[in-house]
Amino acid sequence: MSFTELRYHTLDEISEVYERLQKTFRAGKTRPFDYRRRQLHQLGRLVQENLSALEAAVGEDLGKPKLETVGELNGVIAGVRYAIDNVEQWARPEKVEVVEDFKKGWDATVYKVPHGVVLVIGPWNYPYILNLGPLLGAIAAGCTCVVKPSELAPASSKLMEELCARYLDPDSYSILNGAVPETTHLLELRWDHILFTGSGRTGRIVAASAAKHATPVTLELGGKSPVVIADDADLDLAAKRVLHGKGQNSGQLCVSPDHVYVPRSKQDAFIAALLKHYDAFWPDGPFHESARWGKIVNPSHHARLRALLSRTKGEIVRGGRYDGEARIAPTIVKNVVPDDALMEEELFGPILPLVPVDDMEQTIRLLNAQTVPLVLYLFTNSENVKQQFLERTNSGTLVINDTTSQLAVYEMPFGGQRDSGYGRWNGKYTFDTFTHLRSYIHVPLAAEPFMDGRYMPYTDGKYEAMAAIVKAPLPKL
After folding, report:
1. Burial 339-362 (b: 16+ CB within 10 A, else e)
2. Residue span of the structural domain in which 115 resides
3. Which of the residues 2, 211, 260, 307 has an alpha carbon 20 to 30 A from that of 241?
4. What is the pTM of this model?
């Protein structure tokens, strides 16, 4: 299937869509659960009835193997099913059961109400789960939503625009395409929530723009997600799972294993295991047709990765070959020091630096000296080591003995910490992100005799009565 050049929406079209979605939300159209479930069902049909076209589009953009793409779309379908089955339960008002005795008749309740008109700015590397995933959460929450996918994945972005217009209610949901000017215009509008996935540099621009309107923002920014190989790790299995994680989308994944801290005495054994699985994954080499090895998104990203490899002081064990400006072979680099060129920024490509360390204390010091990653991968079977990492390190997620599998657990929140972002989404947590918790009380008129002490004139007696409450004994420890 071939795709024409991506057409960017005009600024007037963007403003028109924004006003239409505002009008829809104010009319209350998206709030009924029957409407939400129908739109979620339509989103599921969109994926199921256009699987081949969706695979072809991302294949054109990234050369991504169909198996990886269908896995991404499986995440969307799983989220749709989960939301259809649970949206009414998620949105059910919650009575506040534990209140002081004198407030028990006030019917204290927390209502789950949609934020309003929300904006999703998605990335190019996983165009479906990171664009349609937040969209399904907005639908479940009862919001209207604009999704702005990346212009760096034009085939996928164009197809999502066409399919969403065909399957979803255009008065409530819209895909708007463009580049920097169009995104800048979107950010000048007043949204009720913005969810952004991308680089830290762009994330700061999004946050600053949102601050002008006091708009809440969720940022998923990635970062250098490290792998730690503990002394007791199964080196063979760790090598297989790390290499698999690094190979996803040619390393262009926000939770891709970025670099590996390995005991100095075990670096050679770990390399031997990596090479064993390298040969098993790509028996004819990564550039052979049978390998289905994807491409780097564009020549500038390709050039950035080549430049990093040219500057490293580490030793290339395997890889380092280029296929024009399209692909880079998976590359293993050993004896990388903490201040090496490969450690300066998130790699976002198929390069795996191995950083030898002397002990776990040095590893923890190095981890705490770098920016907080989106995920930390730890290979160990030691409960003591696990507890050390839970208590002494920071990350958005901690994964034991695997890489990237946390993305399959849509029942858990997904998000970063500090440098890797803030806020969370995934499954119910996307619903929560786009939902306002509206507090409610109904103070009965019959309570008036008990409220006399709050009214003026203020007297010494009223003061002493209030002070007695403040001075009452604290609960015993």
Report:
1. ebbbbeebbbbbbbbbbbbeebee
2. 11-221+426-436
3. 307
4. 0.94
